[in-house]
Specification:
It is built from seven helices and five strands, in the order βααβααβααβαβ. It has about 140 residues and is an alpha/beta fold. The chain has a five-stranded parallel sheet with strand order 3-2-1-4-5, with helices on both faces.
Length: about 140
């Protein structure tokens, strides 16, 4: 796959937690040298939170978290500059309409605004994307 897509943290974190990886999530990672992932501004905070929780649960240690953060920093992942300035009302409307968290609605909002496919492993977000008319990538 080449071209741009919206990258949900659930897919990126499957690259860290190998027991969550799929052939499709690995293919998305392998596509990045010729493609480009776009994420909302909350993406890094979400990734950091999952890594810290993973450390607390003994799934990884701080050194592995740091190595993963270095790996994703080297990837062509663009943080959408306009997502930090988004008013909450559109996100809340999407969250209400599709029974999502506001965090997940940020990914759907970005996919709809940019007219780009969404890569997610989150079932509720994938269902919402389909209902809203956003394209989905296998993840």
């Amino acid at each position: 796959m080449s071209g741009a897509f919206i990258l949900d943290s659930s897919v990126a974190l499957a690259w860290c937690f190998r027991d969550e990886a799929t052939a499709a999530s690995d293919a998305l990672l392998e596509s990045l040298p010729t493609g480009r992932a776009i994420v909302p501004s909350l993406w890094l905070v979400e990734v950091a939170n999952v890594l810290v929780v993973g450390e607390r649960r003994g799934r990884l240690d701080p050194a592995r978290s740091a190595a993963f953060l270095e790996m994703i920093a080297a990837l062509p992942i663009e943080i959408d500059p306009s997502s930090a300035d988004r008013r909450p009302a559109p996100l809340m409307a999407l969250a209400r309409a599709h029974r999502l968290t506001a965090y997940d609605a940020a990914y759907l909002d970005l996919a709809l605004r940019r007219n780009l496919p969404l890569a997610t492993r989150d079932t509720a977000l994938a269902r919402a994307a389909e209902a809203a008319g956003a394209a989905l990538l296998p993840a």
